[in-house]
Model the fold of this input.
Amino acid sequence: MSDESIKRLEAEGDAAADFLEELLDILDMDGDIDISVEAGRAKVAVVPDGPSQDLKRLVGPEGEVLDALQDLARLAVQSETGEVSRLMLDIADFRAGRREKLAEQAREAVAKVQESGKRTELPPMNAFERKVVHDVVLAAGLGSESEGEDPQRYVVVLPAE
Done:
């Protein structure tokens, strides 16, 4: 990745961090904001500065509030930079924990497909969740594809050919 690309992604992270800091101030919530560049995209994490219960309200039961805030952060970045952002937002390590649960679910599906030789469908997932599953399935040497339309889009794990 070029220095120019890294600087552009860091600028995205800074713009998103500014937006999130204002939001936290309005909501009178405490949190530290970490900015990094991972896998070719800016990543911004809001981490607890004390008890994390308050921040969990910004995640929602299934991460739907987090997804909405990520979309708003991407819009704030686009407004400031003029470019569409693929920024990833995590709050109180929700995505990190969710990633591990999804990886385990994907490993179970891989084992099932390897044992039965038949395709297996997983429940509907958002784009982030589907990407995690696709990566685990690929690493296991099997294929996968997404089917259906959002918000009911899901991953199908395919047997080896």
